[in-house]
Amino acid sequence: MAKINPISGFPEFLPQERLVEQQALDVIRHVYELFGFINLETRTVEPVDVLSGNGDDKEIYAVSRLFADEGDKKEATLGLHFDLTVPFARYVQQHKGELTFPLRRYQMQKVFRGERPQEGRFREFLQADIDVICENELPLYNDIEVLQSLFTALYCLHDQLGLPAAVMRLNNRKLLEGFYLGLGITDIASTLRTVDKLDKIGADKVKELLISEVSLSNEQAEKCVAIAQIKSHDLSFVEKVRDLGVEHDLLDEGLEELAEILDQVQAYKERNCPEDVKSDVMVDLSIARGLAYYTGMVFETFLMGHEDLGSISSGGRYDNLASDEKVKLPGVGASIGLTRIMSVMFKRGILKPIKKATADVFVAVNDMETRIKAQMVAEVLRIEGLRVEISSKDNNLGKQIQTASKKGIEFVAFYKEEDQDAISVKNIVTGKQVNVRADDLEKVVNFIEAE
Amino acid sequence: MAKINPISGFPEFLPQERLVEQQALDVIRHVYELFGFINLETRTVEPVDVLSGNGDDKEIYAVSRLFADEGDKKEATLGLHFDLTVPFARYVQQHKGELTFPLRRYQMQKVFRGERPQEGRFREFLQADIDVICENELPLYNDIEVLQSLFTALYCLHDQLGLPAAVMRLNNRKLLEGFYLGLGITDIASTLRTVDKLDKIGADKVKELLISEVSLSNEQAEKCVAIAQIKSHDLSFVEKVRDLGVEHDLLDEGLEELAEILDQVQAYKERNCPEDVKSDVMVDLSIARGLAYYTGMVFETFLMGHEDLGSISSGGRYDNLASDEKVKLPGVGASIGLTRIMSVMFKRGILKPIKKATADVFVAVNDMETRIKAQMVAEVLRIEGLRVEISSKDNNLGKQIQTASKKGIEFVAFYKEEDQDAISVKNIVTGKQVNVRADDLEKVVNFIEAE
Questions:
Q1: DSSP 3-state of B280
Q2: What is the per-residue pLDDT across A1-36, written as a single tens digit (0 to 9) for each?
Q3: What is the per-residue pLDDT for B67?
Q4: Do A392 and B134 touch (CB under 8 A)?
Q5: Is domain A361-450 in CATH 3.40.50.800, yes or no?
Q6: Strand partners, A436
Q7: Does A30 touch chain B (CB under 8 A)?
Q8: How far B37 CA lies from chain A's nearest CA (Å)?
Q9: Does A112 touch chain B (CB under 8 A)?
Q10: pLDDT tens, residue by residue, A357-379
Q11: Domain ranges of chain B
Q12: ipTM confidence score
């Protein structure tokens, strides 16, 4: 085999780390299934023209056969998907005749982005998404439910795995766009993109850029910066926006939607989250989201004490991404960037690789004859749902117990030379031990369950 | 969004089909965990020089940024992995200092092959693998355990999902190579490759090619064809090989290994598989496996009545794939080609998309006021572990029940206009219904569990 090295940006976990990631996936799956979401997977590749214009095109990975022939050249250029929203929208549009709406799906797959690797930024990473797409009309309740589902998933990750509490920061594209339109701004996209930099470059610099690059007046720029600085945990943000004196129908609509969403998600939190848990939801009008396809609610999520990591879960409402001329297919969704969370939490010592062993019982083996007996013991225990590893070597018992101990396995079963019709089972942590007749293996199960 | 079409060779399932695939993955995971295997995922890309020479190089997909710059050109060329064995061997070699051996892992990921798409052949498909790799020495028991684990997984898929019974066909590279060496044949690789075509082109044609292309004598070619035609369910194959009058130490070793493996897996089957189940294991000396890295046991698996589909699960022993000059890391593994099985079984009507709904209860909604009540009902039921979908629309009750019915959801909960402090729960299949006070929702759970 050729010399082997890690590839920058393509992370891999050790087995005990992967156990934690797998546990996180199980928690997320369980929560999303409780909320009535169904699982889906889409192909890893999309035609490049489906991907283009929905993200940063420079980050698209193209795929082609290493030894391409004439036949390949006739086919469309393929790229690896960079998120799960664009492929899902394409999937729904393609299969709309075969689907039952509203379609609520969760999807957990690797995505690929050719960006410069740095802490918490990867070229291949696992995303866990939920989305609801419906024909014609998708009421606002769906935005609320998506946020409630996500809130629950993040709360359960906090509660069950020890992940830091998460704070969801909400905004609304209609609110921002209506505000800009009310100010007489026409280049909405450039204004959004510039305001999105507030966190990184500060208010003064954003104002400067809005004047110099987007050609806003001093007053327009000032108000854009002012609205972006509004944050609140309650409905007081409505008053604060009104105080800026801008009027537009779209702004009213956005304010109303955002107020309704905040209210409902806050109430959900109060009903379902213990008071001492810091998981939270709030309005933050600086959240703009880079992607062009959002049309209403948008949000980002930060882990408390690890805000430097950036948003670990984001999403929003997209009314047109899956729609075509004939059928309107509005959608709303949320995505958890799981690899980013896991990787940094391991590095910072917040999450610890699971000590949990990969088996409950390790069956030691003396020789070929006891191996066959050992197998039969294993078969009985597995039927009882116990995870059993049979020693792959028949070296001395001490060494086999060492192997079990290294693997974190609590129970070792073994035969004694002098009595091959009985098996001994020892808890190698407590030292407690029982001897069980070969025809009475049920007792092994009882012993293990009682310990 | 651009015009959308399926991409040949990149299959996608509908939600109800994916449910079956997910169920299959859960069954496989459960079995492999009972056998003490731990889960791992490796990155999707490998440097092309890690992939090359271990499969069909023409099938490798290369990956590069669509808009590559100077920095990219300095990096190694990357390709998508075409199986999970080569990446796992690379992973073990790379991380050997951090792993506990023997490492028993299962891995379920998509792999990519740029081959001509046809029925049961895909360019992207899901594989479910198990492998054991150990430092220095890996006793033959591991080959036996891998086959027993796989046998159990395939048996459970048969038993729980209704997949056809599987027949595992075993051979051994040492046996074939020893036989060829005993015959004085020097070009082992070409002989293996030619004999591997027996199924497709027949015995006469294979003999002809062995003489014309591999330059074997008539007698050598005849014996190569003769041994490849030996099949048996018991140890009689040893005698049949001996009768061909060829002698070589490696042949003896191969015969002994294969006899031991067949014996143990047969005995396992007899102990664990009901007599009326046709799942089976046998020796078939025509099984050669195309891949260069196998060094001992090799096998392929066929579904009864669907042999035309080709092998659905294969693998073997590889003593050198993960090894380097300093450390020997022998391995043995088995792979299930899940997408191939699922896709063809759906098409042939053997597997049916699951009718199972994505939720247990559908909560209907009259208006904003009942929506908030409906949410609280959903929250209580979810805590009890019930999967609940709240109607995303507040159109009339009949339409909402229709939606629930279309989704296959059995229970609908709804509020009556005249009494908003009670909720009615109806089994829309049997028509049975209860009315429950809002402060006594426990009764909803009881009703659903009793139905």
A1: strand
A2: 455 788 889 999 999 999 999 999 999 999 999 999
A3: 83
A4: yes
A5: yes
A6: A423
A7: no
A8: 7
A9: yes
A10: 789 999 999 887 788 888 888 99
A11: 15-347, 361-450
A12: 0.93
Asked if the Cβ–Cβ distance from A19 to B42 is below 8 Å, we say no
DSSP labels for A19-62?
HHHHHHHHHHHHHHHHTT-EE----SEEEHHHHTTSS-GGGPEE
CB contact under 8 A, B124 and A45: yes
Question: For a pLDDT cut of 90, what percent of chain B falls above it?
Answer: 69
Do A370 and A149 contact (CB within 8 A), yes or no? no
Are A289 and A298 spatial neighbours (Cβ–Cβ below 8 Å)? yes
| Residue A119: CB atoms within 10 Å | 11
Q: Choose from A107, A151, A358 for mutation: most chain B CBs within 10 A.
A: A358
Distance from CA of A60 to the nearest CA of B (A): 6
Q: CB pairs below 8 Å between A and B: how many?
A: 247
Distances (CA, A) of B192 to B174, B221, B261, B262, B332: 12, 12, 22, 22, 20
- Residue A104 near residue A38, CB atoms below 8 Å: yes
Amino acid sitting at position A255: L
Distance from CA of A211 to the nearest CA of B (A): 32
Beta-strand relationship, A313-318 and A297-303: antiparallel
B331-344 pLDDT, tens per residue?
999 999 999 899 98
Q: What is the DSSP secondary structure assignment for residue B326, as one 8-state letter? A: S
Beta strands in B48-192 (DSSP E): 61-65, 78-80, 103-112, 124-133, 166-172
**What does CATH list as the number for B15-347?**
3.30.930.10
Spatial distance between the Cα atoms of A125 and A109, rounded to a whole number of angstroms: 8
Euclidean distance between the first and the last CA atom of chain A, given in angstroms as a whole number: 46
**Which carries the bigger pLDDT value, residue A71 or residue A374?**
A374
Residue B132 has what pLDDT?
A: 97
DSSP state of B395: S
User: Which residues 146-185 of A have a C-beta within 8 angstroms of B?
Assistant: none
Give B240's Cβ-side CA count (13 Å radius): 18
Residue tagged 């980013």 (tokens): A340
pTM, whole model, 2 decimals? 0.93
Residue to test with chain B: of A34, A88, A270, A400, most B Cβ within 10 A: A34
Please report residues of A whose CB lies closer than 8 A to that of B136: none
Chain B residues near residue A259 by CB distance under 8 angstroms: none
B-chain residues within 8 Å CB-CB of A113?
Answer: none
Q: What pLDDT score was predicted for residue B150?
A: 98
Residue A214 gets the label, from left (phi > 0), alpha (psi -120 to 50) or beta, of alpha
What's the mean pLDDT in B50-55? Answer: 85
